[in-house]
Amino acid sequence: MIRPLVLVGALALLAGCASEPPSSMTQSGMAMSAGDYVTAAAEADQFEIQEGQLAATRAQGPKLRDFGQMMVRDHTATSQALAAAAARSGLGAPPTALRSEQQQMLDKLHAAKGADFDRLYLSQQVQAHQEALSLQTAYADGGADSNLKSAAIAAVPVIRRHLDLVRQLSTSPGGS
User: Fold this and answer.
1) What is the DSSP secondary-structure string of 16-29?
2) 131: CATH
3) N- or C-end of the chain: fewer Cβ atoms within 10 A?
4) For the packed helices 114-142 and 100-111, what is the interaxial angle rounded to 10 degrees?
């Protein structure tokens, strides 16, 4: 079973779990609440946006800078769709803060320079997109709120495309 993103820090350190079948259940067997999904999805988007902003200006290669810009653009769009879905469902605005683990990863990226920045960014992006894909797929497959489920269904191909691209960048000569 995939560990839920909503448990603080549980999935931030587990990049390998994305290969397991997604589930909308938490580790305790309880269905993921709409509020927990909104929080986890919003945190994932904010992480991608903030890291993308850094990469757009600090990555060594143009492909990686372009990827960072795409992260900002696409995850801003998925954030807006999530906020609209949450509003239609009578939920409050999604949070804009990061989980502490995400903030620590972002801080490490801020400190990295040159080729080390690129390698760390790529590594973090693979992990973040595996986690986001697991979350979105789980809610798309088993979420109870139809508005949020629609937002998750729309986000899945975007995140899958990002994961494919970041994996390609990770294996290309020079990584960018």
Assistant:
1) GGGGSPP-SB-TTS
2) 1.20.1260.10
3) N
4) 160
